[in-house]
Amino acid sequence: MLIAWAITYSAIVGGVKAGIERAAKIMMPILFIMVLILIGRTIFLPGALDGVNYLFQPDFSKIMDLKVWAAAYGQIFFTLSIGFAIMLAYSSYLPEKSDINNNAFMTVLINCGFSILAGIMIFAVLGFMAHEQSKELTDVVSAGVGLAFVTLPAAINELPAPYILGPLLFLSLTIAGLSSHISIIEAVTSAIIDKFKIARKKAATLVCGIGALVSLAFATNGGLLLLDLVDYFTNQIGIVLACFIEVILVVMVVKAANIRSYVNNVSDFKIGGWYDICLKFISPAILAITLFNTLKTTVTEGYGGYAQSDLLTLGWGLLALLVVIGVLINTFSKKEA
């Protein structure tokens, strides 16, 4: 954990060009190569193709299941870091006349393409595991963080040469986690710099120092429980709510047509009126329905079999704390100004 924070701190202090961009140029190719190696080794195992087929075979009976849509939105929020202010932080360093439409489409396509590659690797492993245990694939998989830290390691142990594939898997997870970690901390650090007008090194030291202390809780015996609850309440509820409010404010204050006009003026290919419809109606509607269903399910049924006391303190309490911190930061930054 200390090594991860040290790497993150070095990248953040170095800034976007000298730190974050350099780290990304090293980590992303390594991650891509390792995932390809894992796919090449696992795809030919007995039952692996059954797992891959399960991944790509649609089940249209689930198309109206709101839980599926909530999970899908939570996934894309996480992989694209929508609602984390990461895109705002990074885009602020782009040239004024950058091709926004092209950058946006390339970001989404590359992100989704890599997600599919990772999915092929994971379901190939799960298919092999189900074949070896003579079980259905749904019987060997677990949801949430248990997939990465329990199910996949157990499956790797059953593979040929686990002493090679095991380290490859966890190194891949480590690099993926580090890249996301650096991005999230950069977003917070940039916000602190903009709000309080302090030097980057001082802001990075403050954010990384507090973050390192708080993250010690995840290294305790109850760390996995805490991680699962923080992940669920942050991504499935907090981020969805924040993005819903953001979309409404953007439509009401900035106006969808104004945004479309600006990005089209600086881009080679243009986006049409469908963008306005998505921003005004489709996105808010889906977000509202998804959020309502998630809140209803969480309140009435709970989550993950955890005790209500855990949900109240580590889940709802966390969301309330984040709101309070945001209000305090905004209040003190105005006083400083």
Automatic annotation (TrEMBL):
Which terms in the GO cellular component ontology are assigned? plasma membrane
Q: Which InterPro entries match?
A: Na/ntran_symport, SNS_sf
Q: How does it sit in the membrane?
A: Multi-pass membrane protein
- Quick one: a GO biological-process term for this protein? sodium ion transmembrane transport
Q: Which UniProt keywords apply?
A: Membrane, Transmembrane, Transmembrane helix, Transport
Q: Does the keyword Transport apply?
A: yes
Compartments (UniProt record): Membrane
The source's domain of life comes to Bacteria
Q: Does the keyword Transmembrane helix apply?
A: yes
The record's annotation in SUPFAM superfamilies points to: SNF-like
Q: What NCBIfam families does the database record attribute to this sequence?
A: Na_transp
Q: What is this protein called?
A: Sodium-dependent transporter
Q: What organism does the UniProt record list as the source?
A: Vibrio ishigakensis
The taxonomy runs: Bacteria, Pseudomonadati, Pseudomonadota, Gammaproteobacteria, Vibrionales
